[in-house]
Amino acid sequence: MARARKKPSNTSFYSYIKWFWILFFSGVLSVLLVFLLASWGAFGEMPTFERLENPKTNLATEIISSDGVTLGKYYLDDNRTPVDYKELPQNLVDALVATEDARYYDHSGIDGIGFLRAIAFLGQRGGASTISQQLARQLFVGVRSKNLFQAVTQKIKEWVIATRLERSYTKQEIIAMYMNIYDFGYNADGIRSAARIYFGKEPRDLKIEESAVLVGMLKNSSLYNPIRREKLVLDRRNTVLAQMEKYDYINEEEKDSLQQVKMDINFSPESHREGLATYFRMYLQGYLNDWIKKNPKPVTEDGDRDTWNIYLDGLKVYTTIDSRMQKNAEEAVTEHMKRLQAEFFHQNTPDRNPTAPFLDLEREEINRIMERAMKNSDRWRKMRAADKSEKEIRASFNEKTEMTVFDWKSDTQEKDTIMTPLDSIRYYKTFLRSAMMSMEPQTGHVKAWVGGLNYKHFQYDNVIQGARQAGSTFKPFVYAAAIDQLRMSPCDQLPDSQYCIEAGKHGNPEPWCPKNSDGRYSGNMYTLKHALANSVNTVTAQLIDKVGPKPVVSIVKNLGLTGEILEVPSIALGTIDFNVYEMVGAYGTFANQGVYVKPVMVTRIEDKNGTVLFEYVPETKDVLSKEVAYAMINLLEGVTEGGSGTRLRHTFAKDQDVYKEIITGYPYEFTNPIAGKTGTTQNQSDGWFMGMVPNLVTGVWVGGEERATHFKTIYYGQGASMALPIWALYMQKNYTDPDLGVSKEEFIRPEKMTINLDCSKLEQGVEEENDLENDLDDIDF
Questions:
Q1: Quick one: which H or E segment has residue 189?
Q2: 8 Å CB contact between 717 and 657
Q3: With bands split at pLDDT 50, 70 and 90, how would you rate the model's confidence at 655?
Q4: CA angle at 746 for the pair 740 and 747, rounded to the nearest 5°
Q5: Does the first or last residue of the chain, that is N or C, have fewer Cβ atoms within 10 Å of its Cβ?
C-alpha cells in the first residue's frame, strides 16, 4: 500500500517569507547605513554645506577692453573664467544632456534606471554617472582610484554629494558649474576658455557641430584631442550628434547634414606672451600687484585679512583700451617697421658697415656694450643661479645652439636657426624698436598701447620703461611758456640768425650757441608759427632766453613730465629723456583746452561676484588757459600744414620713390585738422611724432636699443620718416571704422580769443620752405 505524500507545513512557508523580508530590509538598511557613514565622513572627508554653496576653484583674472572684448587673462594652472547658464547656447546644453545624462531633468542626482542597466550589463551599455555625479567628482572626489575598495567608496561619496548638490542648486546651475569646471586641455579650463581656444569665439556663439566637439571631449579631453587626433574627435563629434537625434534635439536630416560638416578648428592658445595688447597686459600685471598690496581683502570673521591673488581669485579688470584701436595700432607698427627695418638692414650689411649695428663707435665701446648685454641676459642669470663659474658661463655664450629668433620675413615673425648666444645678442641689437600710445585727451583714457615689436622676443616696454631724448617734440613746451608768461603770439617774429646765451645767464655753465640743423641761418624774420613748424633752433633759443628755463620747467612738471630737469637753456632743444606715456599725457593738455588729465588705463576692478573693489577717479590739473592751449594747437597745426609734418597732406610722392618703399601708405592725403610735432635727436638716434586730432592724442617713438644703432643719414633717420608713418597708418585704419568716433572736426576755439592767430599778412614775402627737402630739417644740435 502506497504511503501518503506529506504536505508542506504552513510554518515553513511563512519562515521563507520572513527571512526574505529580513534580508531585504537588512540590505536596504545596510545601504542606508553605508550612505549615512559616507555622509558622516567615514570613507573620507566630505564637503561642508559652506563648501557646497561655495566650491573652491581657481579662477583667472580677466582683462576686459572698453568695447567689451577679453584682451587676456592672468592665471597659473587654471585658465578659468566662469560663465552663467544664460551665456551657454541651447545646442551645447542639449548635446551635453543627450550624451552624458538623458534623464537629467527627471532624477535628483542618481539615475536609478542607468544604475540598474550598468549593473545588468556590467557597464557595456553606458555608465551610470549623472552630470551631478560627474560634477561632484570634479569638485570634491578627484580621479577614480585603481584600488577596488577605494573606487567603490569614491562612488558612494559621489552619490551622496550629487544628491546634496541637487538640493543646493538648480539643474541649470549644475550644468553651468560642470561646464565651467572641466579641463579641456591646452589651458582651456572651463567652457569659456575652451570655446575661445578651440574656436576663437565666445560660448554663446558656438554652432551645433562645435558644441558637439566640446561635449565629445568631456569623455576624455586627453584622448579626444582635436589638435592631435582629428579623426578620432570627428567620430566622437558625430556620435554626439547621433545622440542628439536619438533624443529628438535635432532631426535625422539635420544630423546627417551636420555629420558631413568639416571640423573647423580655429586653435588660438591663450598665452601671456601672445595675443592682443601683450605689452599693456604686462604693464597691467605690475599695476595690479601694486594695487593688491594697498587693497587687502575685507576682514574675515576670524579678524584676518588676506590679499587678493590675480592668478586665482577671478577678478575682472575693466580697462580703457579699445580692442579695435589696439589692433589698428599693432598693425600700423608692424607694417611700417617691417619695411623700415628692411632698409636699415640694407644700409648696414657688413660690407657697408663692419661695426654694424653700432655706428661711430670704437671697438672698445662695442665690447663694453656686448659685455653689459651678456651679463644682463637670462642665460647669465640662470647659470649664475645654478652656481656655474664665470668661465663656464662665458664659454656657453660662444657655443652654437639651436634657437628660435625673431624674423620680419616670416609670417609667424620667427625662424629656427643655429647661432651662438653672443651672436644672438648682436642680432637682436640690429633691430629698430618702436613704441606707441594713444589717448583720449578729455578723459585720459588710453585707447592703444604698443610697447614694442613682438613681446615674445622683445620684452622691454618702450612706452613706459624706456625714456629717450625728446628732440624737437620738447620745443612746444618752450613756446607754451613764452605765450603763457610773456603773452607772445604765434604771429610774433624773431630773426633766424646765430644766437648765443652767454655763460652765467640762466645758470648756463658756458656759452650756448645752438645751430640750425643744416648749419645755415637765413637772416629772415620768422613768425613763431613758421619757426616751430620748421624746427628753427635759433628761434627756440631766443624764446627760452626771453622766458627763462625756470617757467619752462614749471610748465613741464605740471604737464606730468617727471624726472630731473635742469633749469638750463639747452633743455629747449629736447636734450632730456622722456617716455611715450608722459609725452602723450603732456600733449593731451593742448587738445584738452589747457587741462592736464593723467593717463588712465583701469576704470574698474570687480571680484568674481561682481562686487566693485576699485573705481577710477580722474586726476586733473589746470595748467594753461584755454587761449594759450588753443594758440599752441594753432602752432602745432602749422607743422602739418607747412612744416616737417606736411607729408601727411601730400597727394603725390614728389618723385621720391624711396619713400614709397620705406613708408607704407605714403602719400597719406589727410585733409582734416591735425596738430603735431616731429622730433629727431643727435645722430638720428631717436625719431618721434606726436599727432593730435580733437579727441585723440598719439605719440610714436622709433629708435635702436642702443643709441649707436641708427641710420647714417637724416634722410631716413628723421622723425618724419621713422615715426610719423606709424601715426598715419594708424589713423587711416581708425577712420575706416566710423564706430570708433575718431574726430575729423576742428579743434574747439575759445569764444574770446585775444591772442592774434592771423599771421597771413606778416608771412607775405617770407619764403615758405615746405618742400620735401625741408621736411628733413628736424634735428637738434
A1: none
A2: no
A3: very low
A4: 90
A5: N
The type of residue at 96 is: L
Report which residue type is found at 567. Answer: E
| HEC string for 147-175 | CHHHHHHHHHHHHHHHHHHHHHCCHHHHH
Neighbours of 16 (CB within 10 A): 8
Record the cell numbers describing residue 305, joined without a space.
585679512
**How far apart are alpha carbons 528 and 475 in whole angstroms?**
11
Looking at residue 4, its pLDDT comes to: 54
**For 312, which DSSP code?**
T
- pLDDT tens profile 247-294: 989 999 998 999 999 888 888 777 777 788 999 999 999 999 999 989
> Which distant-in-sequence residues (6+ apart) come within 8 Å of 343 by Cβ?
661, 662, 716
Residues constituting the chain: 781
**Measured distance CA(43)–CA(150) in Å, rounded:** 9
Mapped onto helix, strand or coil, the DSSP state of residue 242 is helix
Q: What is the mean pLDDT of residues 601-610?
A: 93
For residue 357, cis peptide bond before it (omega within 30 degrees of 0): yes
Q: Which three cell numbers stand for residue 565?
A: 630737469
Q: Is the N-terminal amide bond of 667 cis, ω within 30° of 0?
A: yes
Please give the pLDDT value at position 124. 47
The β-bridge relationship of strands 61-64 and 316-319 is parallel
Distance, in Å, from the CA atom of 675 to the CA atom of 697, rounded to the nearest integer, reads 9
Q: Scanning the structure block, which residue is given the C-alpha cell 647714417?
A: 712
What is the pTM assigned to this prediction? 0.80
| Residues above pLDDT 70, as percent of the chain | 81
Spatial contact of 645 and 718, defined as CB atoms under 8 Å apart: no
- Domain boundaries, given as residue ranges, for the chain: 80-269, 434-775
Tell me how far apart the alpha carbons of residues 711 and 701 are, in angstroms, rounded to a whole number.
15
Helix (H) or strand (E) holding 311: none
3-state secondary structure of 414: strand
Number of H helices, E strands in the chain: 29, 18
Q: Are 467 and 347 in contact (CB under 8 A)?
A: no
- The residue with greater pLDDT, 354 or 298, is 298
- Rounded Cα–Cα distance for residues 682 and 718 (Å): 10
DSSP state of 295: S
Contact 406, 431 (CB under 8 A): yes
Reported as type and span, the H/E element at residue 277 is: none
Q: What is the pLDDT of residue 620?
A: 95
The Cα–Cα gap between 189 and 82 comes to 9
3-state secondary structure (DSSP) of residue 758: coil
Is 80-269 a domain of CATH 1.10.443.10? no
Contact 67, 322 (CB under 8 A): yes
Provide the 10 A C-beta neighbour count for residue 770. 17
Q: Would the pLDDT of 587 be above 60?
A: yes
Closest CA to 338 of 432, 439, 214: 432
- CATH of the structural domain 434-775, one choice from 3.40.710.10, 1.20.120.80, 3.40.50.150, 2.60.120.260: 3.40.710.10
Angle between helices 475-486 and 580-591 (to 10 degrees): 40
Residues 6 or more apart whose CB falls under 8 angstroms from that of 204 comprise 87, 88, 89
State the cell numbers at 230.
582629428
**C-alpha–C-alpha distance, residues 120 and 130, integer Å:** 17
Q: How far apart are CA 42 and CA 411, in angstroms?
A: 60
- Which range of 111-120, 395-404, 695-704, 759-768 scores highest in mean pLDDT? It is 695-704
Q: Confidence band (pLDDT; 50, 70, 90) for 441?
A: very high
